[in-house]
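Researcher: I'm comparing several assemblies side by side, and this is the next one on my list. It has 1090 residues spread over two chains. Same procedure as the others: predict the full complex and return the structure.
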Amino acid sequence: MEIGLYSLFIEEIGALVVSDLHLGYEIYLGEIGVHVPLTQYKKIREYLEENIEEFDPQMLIVLGDLKHDFSKASWQEWREIKDFFDLFSGREVHLIRGNHDNYLKPIARKRGIELKDQITIGKYKFFHGHKPVELGKVNLMGHEHPAISIRDEMGVKWKFKCLLYGEFEKSDLIVLPSMSPLMGGTEVNVSGREDLLSPILRERGVDHMRVYVVDEEAGIYEFPRIGELKSELLDDAIH
Amino acid sequence: MDEALEILHPKVGSWFSKFGELSPPQALSLAPISKGENVLISSPTGSGKTLAAFIYVISELVRLAENNSLEDRVYCVYVSPLRALNNDIRRNLLRPLKEMNEDRIRVGVRTGDTPQSERQRMLRKPPHILITTPESLGIMLSAPKFREKLRGVKWVIVDEIHELCSSKRGVHLSLSLERLVDLSGEFQRIGLSATIHPIEEVAQFLVGLSNGKPRDCTVIKVDYLKKTDIKLICPVEDLINTPSDLVSRRMYETLKGLIEEHRTTLVFTNTRSGTERVVFHLGKEKVEDLAAHHSSLSRETRLEVEEKLKNGELKAVVCSTSLELGIDIGYVDLVVQVGSPKSISRCLQRTGRAGHRLKDISKGRIIALDRDDIVEIAVMIEKAYDGMLDRVQIPRNCLDVLAQHLVGMAIDRVWSIEEAYSLVKRAYPYKDLEKEKFVSVLKYLSGEYDGVDLESNRVYGKIWFNGREFGRRGKYTRVIYSTNIGTIPDEAEVKVYCEGRKIGYIEEEFLERLMPGDRFVLGGRVYEFRRAKGSKAYVKKAYSERPTVPSWFSEMLPLSYDLALEIGKFRERMFQAINSREDPSKVIEEIKEKCRTNLNSAKSIYNYFLEEYLFLNSLGVRDWPSHKKLLIERVREGRKLHLIFHALFGRRVNDALSRALAYLFNRNLGRTVLITVNDNGFMLTVPRIGEEKIKEILSNLNSRNIREVLRKAILNTEMIKRRFRHCATRSLMILRNYRGREKSVYRQQLSAESLLKALKDTKGFPVIEETIREIMEDLMDVKNAEEVLSKLERGEMEYVFSPEFEIPSPFAHNLYLAGASDAILMEDKRKVLEDLHQMVLERISIVEKTS
């Protein structure tokens, strides 16, 4: 498996895995009175194109929240998502249903794509992560939008999106970063366990998980485990 | 005087003559006002300005009533920034009307507080004299039915114009007035102002331009009237060596003493938290009949305090800045200011609140809180008695305020670019607005910046714009406009709890930067952040002196540049006196006299300078910080170097210089640079580098490139996120009130950082442009920063290095202990990660070793 730009590529099955794109988020924001120009999709498309070029995947698996909820089915829903599917024409597309994917079904149906709650291919199990699930051998999920925050020596706080990798009993669990530029993320090394979004992570804790920072400018960087990145621990060390 | 009264209708004239003499502003303004001239009256409180403005209006309205030609419309609009003042004014108008037995003239107040029933009544029977606020006027101009009642307005009176013109509220008003001209035709403008400088510019602001030329305005300046008795008070004998908690305690004892010696005392602090603290401590000292007054208190509470004050029921009222403006506060015989008021104008204005009648001497006492404070206050008093005033600064070309008004205009009708542009340029703050910038706002409002095809514009556009004309779009636009109008930024929204009690508020952007364990200052105390949930933050008390996180919400008022330069000159005199071994007692005597203070204060001031002199001497430094010498101290701390610039230019200029320089250091060294700023200087925290390197980087900044550098610097700081939100809200990009949702959702659902990042790439996006402009020109003072750099270039000022040392000089203590206020962030993300990784590994190994 190889980490890509906010993605994971599984060579064994030729699958490119991405998660939490939240297309249409700007429309939702507009509905609550925050009128930001449409900037997300342009960026997301760039990321996807780069991933396709690097890995040339046979199939695409989206681990949920491809689209963000908004109350009316509007033009954007059709346009950006249409474009998204066009990007992957000729390749297999699998969609996992996330908690924000309401109304995605009819759009997906038009392309002959089924929305599923989970998919198993060989030893790999794919799901969104907002509901408890029986684990397979190698599990991939999204939903959490993991990020870490570290304060540098000058006292400035830096926040980076990351991919998490951990071993749970006999299984492996991988949490993908969110591909959405606008959405925030859970600072997994700062939040208490109760504050984690996914029940799966809440149940098991994340301290033992390894951190791979993924940043479009800085690239991919491996960091120690979350437990070792807890801020109190680090700050106390200097005193 | 009799001739003056003859201008008035006999009924009015005879009522007026009952008062005896006309006050100077009244006597001098009656003739020009009667001739239809625009007039600006500048005079102290209690000089009868308001009546001067109204008396002719009332007289004319009486004439119309007598001739049975008084119609059901608004003849006079009175605008003031204070809602409380409005009710006062109404009462003050109704009383004389009653005494004249005049009941045909209607006076009404219309503000955000006016109930719906009252507004309906106003439609049927509009007031002849309408009293309102800038925001309400803006809303009224787009109210389809009520705006018709404003056609044919003859007079507009703008009160407290000195307060309005220096903020975006005034800018907003200036556009409203031009829209009113468009609706109603030209009208006569009367402005009322406290003492301010330069008065001619304020006059221009009031009247605006017509056909490209400034409209005429007669200025009536009566500033010499009020006599003042201002003294500096030092709470302890030796301010230098007395521990701060003792200084604090003595300060409250002194304050209590003053309050008890006088009938009613008005106490000004500069901040809300300061007000709360003073009231708390005075309460502990058992001062009775005490009350607090500030903008965070509920309206009812404030009104209650104002009533009590007016009725003489209170011994003391403590406020931040809320009682600076004109509401009637009854009999106050002493004004005390805790800490420097930061500008001569403010000092005089506040003092002027004491002794309400013109003949009374205004008694003011200013209590110094620390060593820098005492010098500042001393010089301020000296200069105040010399007749010096600081300059006001009027914000220009504010694109966010413009956006609001363009939406309002679009609601009224369709406009051509030319028409709208001409209207806007008639307002003084916009007289030099570039057409390109004007059009960019139209583009933004119509959704054109979204970067997608026209179809998408339907979602975001509040107006339609076809390149030549614009008009309204969307059924919610009018509601959005009237519920979101205004320029006052939202208060900090995150509630902070400590041990179950709510202790204050912080802003969303600040919370975004906090991590558990961080220590920051709130309300003068240090707290440690634990966690946050939703819009609540939880902290615990921290007993450490030094905060670990930069806190930016400086509630502090900035010291004016002009006054800062005077302090610089004072420093030069003091150091010269010490260096040439002048007799200390003579010097101290001179300070006592010129600065109107007591022996203790004068001694404290002298000793402060002596300490600094001796410290620098011991390091071999023979140049001392003044307006001519910019001393740069270098203080080592571990792997860091603190460069302390003794830049005596006031915080606004220092904000500009520090950010620009920090940016250059950041570019050159590739590292994050921390910035700490106050009125007396700024500190840059960098990695350890040598003198040559520092000089090299300093030489990269000059008066010609500072704007460009500053622009880049600002985009790279933490500060921009917060200001961005304010500008975005004013530009109607982020709506405070939308479809019944009144709370801010900003933080919970949007990362400020990512939004800014996305928008920075959009060329000329007005909200970003305005954020940068506001920071550079209104918050900071880039113009005077250019001036400082020019002085350095011309050799009128030079910088001087002191050798590297472990501790800061006495003059640098406050800066050193303040805790950084901002940072220029490292740009190479890869490097950031590498450094963070390295740092983390090191700390982990320490943890492992110690466990």
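Model: For your comparison table: Chain A touches chain B through 55 residues (CB under 8 Å).
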